[in-house]
Amino acid sequence: MEAQFVERYHSHQPSDHQCSSSLVKHIKAPVDIVWSLVRRFDQPQKYKPFISRCTVKGDLTIGSVREVNVKSGLPATTSTERLELLDDEEHILGIRIVGGDHRLKNYSSVITVHPETLDGRPGTLVIESFMVDVPEGNTQEETCYFVKALINCNLKSLADVSERMAMQGGVVPTSVELVF
Question: CB of 134 within 8 A of CB of 143?
């Protein structure tokens, strides 16, 4: 099933100076809880631990732009991102980075959320894919490693927050804190 979803929603066509990959996370929480977090283009800090603040310009529609403040520890402080796709029926969110003080140029990502059964209970399959330019001075391998590490951290946090919400009856947190 994963392969079919990847082929259908996550097929990027990177050029020689770009890298691309797809990551998968199985979450022990119903799809409606997971999607309620993922779809919030205006509040990524609900589950993304490296985001301290987000401001959306205009209505929450395709083409909306958000300004994100990044917590210290990453090689950036801001990111400007545009909502490319939001499909509540198919559970698809697509974004593109259009600015910021970082090296992720021409970055785009798609995240899809699919219901599944885990241990006999409602669960969720989350797939996130990306494509990005390889910055001068870096290799494709280094760039992919860095982006995959960020996405894996976000997906782990998404799982933690979603599973906690499922146990608490679907209560949405105000923000997420990193605990090491």
Answer: yes
- DSSP letter at 45 equals G
Q: What is the pTM of this model?
A: 0.89
Q: Report the distance separating Cα 69 and Cα 82, nearest Å.
A: 15
Element (H, E) at 122: strand 121-133
State the Cα–Cα distance between residues 41 and 68, nearest whole angstrom: 11
What 3-state class would DSSP assign to 74?
A: coil
Q: How far is CA 180 from the centre of its chain?
A: 21
**C-alpha angle with apex 178: 131 to 20, nearest 5 degrees?**
10
Mean pLDDT of the residues in the chain = 90
Angle (CA) 42-99-45 rounded to 5° is 30
- Residue 88: CB atoms within 10 Å: 9
